[in-house]
Amino acid sequence: MQSILKDLLLLTLIIFTCIQFISINKMRIHIRKVEKIKEALYEIAYTIVHTQNEEELYDIILSTAIQLIPNASKGSILLLNEDNKFYFKTLIGYSERLKSISFSKEEIYISNMTSKISIIIKNPSKFDENFLSVDKNEYLRTNNALDIACTISSPIYIDDKLIGLINIDSTSKNKIFTEEDRTFMDYIKRDLELVLKNTHIQNKLKFMANYDELTGLINRRYFRKLFENEVKMIKECDDILSVVAIDINNFKIINDTYGHCMGDRALKKFAKVISSNVRGHICARISGDEFVIVLKNYSLEKANERVVHIKEEINKIKFGDLSLDFSYGIYCVNSRENIKPDEILIMADREMYKDKKKFHCNI
Fold this sequence. Notes:
It is a single chain. By secondary structure, the chain is of the alpha+beta class. The protein has helices at about 1-50, 55-70, 125-130, 135-140, 180-210, 220-235, 250-260, 260-275, 300-315, 340-360; strands at about 75-80, 85-90, 100-105, 120, 150-160, 160-170, 240-250, 280-285, 290-295, 320, 320-325, 325-335. The strands form 3 sheets. Strands 3-2-1-6-5-4 form a 6-stranded antiparallel beta sheet. Pfam families: GAF_2, GGDEF. It comes from Clostridium mobile.
């Protein structure tokens, strides 16, 4: 009897030891996978910090996630736009034509997510059939976007604000994602969110350093840097520049009559009109109600035509009983003139003050 008990105890010990060994081995494999993910994310963080192109940034994020999740073959990143709809930002394994369509929250997996963790969607094409319109389903089918056996879908948050969604897809019915894959995706997602937050902060700091916060136009400091480079370029390339100095008329009256909030609205509206009319050229806010436009390869006559058109649009804007208006001066410089950037701006300012004088005389 004692011999049988000893054998049973020995067998139990062996089984327990085997279970422990298997558990430890699984844990080691798990740790190695986590370490591999961490190493890859350290590398991606370094690459992203040195990447200026936003498109490239999201491509790096998506390709890294696909590489790290076993059985993943393609994927996509969708970002939430100002119209509260999701648009494809980057795709791997899919046609770029998909970037032309958008989705509401109800049309994608995010509407079924009750937390910030990743979820596994089995047979996602069935979901699409139930929640997408016939036209969208047909468009996806035409572009080979419904051949998905399984998806890991992860919401992307920055400071508790939903900014997008990353989908990692498997196209093989024999390669379905597991709970371990989903856990790994959450590791990746959390670190990617930190990287994106850091990138977002850096971009915001760059914007604050180079752009006017109210109007979104280039600020005085950044303008000087760009303008000096443009003056240098025209001398090297035998080009011409037309520099337009602009000053809003009666801006103080708008502020005094309707308040500074209305004044800010006027500045933003003014900036939007002039910038939309000079796309591809330099447009800056120099101080309170003073702006500068630099038109490359524009003669004096051509620049004046453009500014007159802008003036006509600006005059249509009303703030109470006041119409928005401005005075302007143009100085055209060519490659043969030996003139410094500051001198060019002074000449444009002089022309602007001549126009301003005419405006006051006509009041």
